[in-house]
């Protein structure tokens, strides 16, 4: 009985230590002495059952990586994080030369994939109680659990007071990202505006386009020789009214034309310019019938 109890206590001890963060000093001939923090996870598939999540800051910079999580030599390596069973994130990085570890380089929100920094990851590690990670690639799938007991002390031992500044850096970075995104949107809008202006410079005014159509009815590809409208002024006023509604949704009118919908009947269409794109085939909800004299009568 005593022997069985000792074995059970040993197993529990191993399980607890595997879920507890540890910090230590590494002596490297190139980088000198530096602090590391790590923990061992559980729940993965053999032979990658117990990955190691490690944080270190040698002279070359901050490294955060997960070792022994699966084969990382395939494409599309992705890490998905869930903290405290509710906050989800994604991470990507580079594979180690041994192809069994991922060095985390990018960190983002899960839903909208907003770019964050690795310092946000560090912040989550210090304030959360548990962590699940799923590793996927074109040839691998593995999931792990990590306890975060002692993570705050261990992470602070690596970054010292830097963690205070790095949290601030995250929020500053978020503001910077918002500015970059805003500038990018502004640049895109300016590009669209310039394209619109370039196209519009070659186009006629709305009045000219309408007058041309009333004077010389046409399909999209050709003029209808010999065709005339029977009540030009009335038809022109009705089309103008229709154009005023469509401009709000489709942009500026570029061309007005009719197409035969059935023998002797023609439907009215418009081509519009919006965001540097030409949209063709917009119905103007008017139908004309042609008589033997090639006169186009508006059907109301």
What does this structure look like?
With 300 residues, this protein is of the alpha+beta class. The protein has two domains: 17-180, Invasion associated locus B (IalB) protein (Immunoglobulin-like, Sandwich), CATH 2.60.40.1880; 206-299, no CATH class. It contains six helices and 14 strands. The protein has helices spanning 2-18, 118-127, 151-159, 162-200, 206-215, 232-250, and strands at residues 22-28, 32-40, 52-56, 63-67, 78-83, 87-95, 101-109, 130-136, 141-147, 228-229, 252-262, 265-274, 277-290, 295-299. The strands form two sheets. It has a nine-stranded antiparallel sheet with strand order 1-2-3-4-7-6-5-8-9. A five-stranded mixed sheet has the order 10-14-13-12-11. A hairpin with a 2-residue loop joins strand 11 and strand 12 (265-274). Helix 2 (118-127) runs antiparallel to helix 3 (151-159), helix 2 packs across helix 4 and helix 5 (206-215) packs across helix 6. It is elongated, with a radius of gyration of 34 Å. It starts with a helix and ends with a strand. 19% of the residues are buried.
Biggest sheet descriptor:
9 strands, antiparallel
SS-derived structural category: alpha+beta
Provide the gyration radius in Å: 34 Å
Q: Architecture of the largest domain, according to CATH?
A: Sandwich
Q: What's the multimeric state?
A: single chain
Shape designation: elongated
Q: Tally the helices: what do you get?
A: 6
Distance between the termini: 99 Å
User: Helical residue percent?
Assistant: 25-40%
**Content of β-strand:** 35-45%
User: Which sequence of SSEs, written as H and E, runs from N to C?
Assistant: HEEEEEEEHEEHHHEHEEEE
The CATH superfamily title of the largest domain = Invasion associated locus B (IalB) protein
Low-confidence stretches: 1-18
How are the strands of the largest sheet arranged? 1-2-3-4-7-6-5-8-9
Tell how many strands the DSSP assignment holds.
14
The overall average pLDDT, rounded, is: 82
């Amino acid at each position: 009985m005593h022997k069985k109890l000792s074995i059970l206590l040993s197993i529990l001890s191993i399980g607890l230590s595997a879920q507890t963060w540890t910090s230590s000093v590494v002596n490297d001939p190139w980088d000198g002495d530096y602090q590391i923090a790590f923990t061992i996870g559980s729940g993965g598939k053999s032979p990658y059952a117990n990955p190691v999540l490690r944080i270190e800051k040698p002279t070359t910079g901050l490294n955060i990586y997960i070792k022994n999580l699966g084969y990382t030599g395939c494409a599309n390596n992705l890490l998905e994080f869930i903290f405290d069973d509710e906050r989800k994130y994604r991470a990507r990085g580079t594979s180690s030369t041994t192809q069994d570890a991922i060095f985390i380089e990018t960190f983002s929100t899960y839903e909208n994939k907003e770019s964050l920094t690795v310092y946000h990851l560090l912040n989550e590690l210090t304030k959360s109680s548990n962590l699940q990670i799923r590793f996927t690639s074109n040839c691998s799938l593995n999931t792990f659990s990590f306890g975060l007991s002692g993570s705050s002390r261990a992470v602070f031992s690596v970054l010292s007071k830097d963690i205070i500044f790095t949290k601030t850096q995250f929020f500053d970075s978020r503001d910077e990202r918002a500015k970059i995104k805003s500038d990018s949107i502004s640049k895109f809008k300016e590009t669209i505006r310039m394209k619109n202006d370039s196209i519009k410079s070659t186009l006629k005014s709305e009045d000219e386009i309408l007058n041309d159509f009333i004077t010389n009815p046409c399909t999209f590809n050709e003029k209808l020789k010999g065709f005339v409208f029977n009540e030009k002024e009335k038809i022109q006023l009705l089309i103008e009214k229709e154009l005023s509604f469509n401009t709000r949704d489709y942009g500026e009118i570029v061309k007005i034309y009719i197409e035969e919908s059935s023998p002797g009947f023609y439907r009215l269409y418009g081509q519009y310019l919006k965001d540097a794109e030409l949209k063709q085939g917009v119905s103007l909800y008017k139908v004309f019938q042609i008589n033997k004299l090639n006169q186009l009568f508006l059907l109301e």
